[in-house]
Every structure is written in structure tokens, then in C-alpha cells.
Amino acid sequence: MARPDKAAAVAELADEFRASNAVVLTEYRGLTVKQLTDLRRSLGGNASYAVVKNTLTKIAAKEAGISGLDDYLSGPSAIAFVKGDPVEAAKGLRDFAKANPVLVVKGGLLDGAPLTGEEITKLADLESREVLLAKLAGAMKASLQNAVSLFNAPLAQTARVVEALRQKAEEDPSILAGGAGTPAAVEAPAEEAPAAEAAADEAPAAEAADAAETTEQNEG
User: Fold this and answer.
1) Is 90 helix (H, G, I), strand (E, B) or coil?
2) Lowest mean pLDDT, pick from 61-75, 154-168, 173-187
3) Beta-carbon neighbour count of residue 53 at 10 Å?
4) Quick check: 74 and 25 in contact, CB under 8 A?
5) pTM assigned to the model
6) CA dihedral defined by 121, 73, 67, 94, rounded to 10 degrees?
7) Could you tell me which residues belong to the region Disordered (predicted)?
8) CA separation for the pair 169, 177 (Å, rounded)
9) Do β-strands 22-27 and 104-110 pair in parallel, antiparallel, or remain unpaired?
10) How many Cα atoms within 13 Å fall on the side-chain side of residue 70?
11) Where are the alpha helices (DSSP H) in 28-128?
């Protein structure tokens, strides 16, 4: 490869490293052109797969400020550059490797942190971002529904009380004016009235007796 071509290849790889939130290094020895095409399709729309030269890739990674990949850059190498959900790409690589064992996932990076091949396989076992967001949305919706139920419960109880009062008022309108539904002044029972009147009649007699007794004491 001529020097200008090498420089262009390094610049292109460096741009891919900078634009990717995850990269996965693989060994593709033994894969046919058709299988490589199928592998690219299995990665989804947020990842690209490129056969690379190890030396140029090391230079490009250094220019992009990326470290930790040199140990994986040996033998026939190809890199999956991921610009979206890394779980989707990891699943595609894992599933393809199951059907085509000649593909070897060597390692990579996720948001600048190094990952081994085993860790990338574990990443593939996680749920995708879309699934996690859907579950989160479902959990939030359930929480909101629970909150609405909690807020509505006292209101429903209040509404039932108001409706009961309304029906009661239709039966007896005076309830709204402190009538039948409101305790009225307590009247003395009818049988107690004569006793009260007798007590009233006895009061002047008692006063007269007291006055007579006082007069006698003064005269004595």
C-alpha cells in the first residue's frame, strides 16, 4: 500500500474509532466472502464491520487516543465499529459465532473501557436498550397508575359522601338549613313539666317563710 493510501486508511480508521461508542475486534480466519456479508447484516444498522491491517489499526487507534487494543491486533483482524446500542451488535456477533465457530471474538472497548471476549459475550446476554426502555416506561406507567389510584381513592370516598348527602337533602330539604338532619334544641320531656311548674310555685312560698322567720327574730 502506497504511503498516501496508508495515510488515508489510518485517517479513516481513526475517524471510525472517534465516532464509535464501542469497538469489537475479531479474527475472521476461514470465513468466506458470503459469510462476511451475512455477518455485517447480523450486526444491525448501528454497526459496521471492516477487515483491517493490524499495523495501520494500531497507528489509527493511537491517533484517536485509544489504548488497550494492541494485544488483540494479531492474525487476520476485522473490527465491528458500533455507533448505537452495543448489546445489539454483541448479540449479532455471538449468534453468528455460534453458527460459524471460525469467527473468534477477541475483545474490544465500550465507552473507552476495555472488554475481553468473554465480557462481550456476557454483554450479548443483556437486554437491548429498546427493551430496557420499554420496561422502564412500563414501570413508570404502573407507578403513575398507582399514584392516580391513591389520589382518586379519597376523592371517590368524598364523592360518595356528597352523593349520600344530596339524596338525603332531596328527602328532607331542611337538612341543609339545620333542620331534620341537625340536632335541634332539646325540650324537656312532657312528664317532667308538672314537676318544673311545682318547683316554680314553691319558690314564692319559701321566700315568704324566710321573710317571716327573719321578722320574728328581729322582734325577739
Assistant:
1) helix
2) 173-187
3) 17
4) no
5) 0.56
6) -10
7) 172-220
8) 10
9) antiparallel
10) 7
11) 33-42, 54-63, 86-99, 117-124
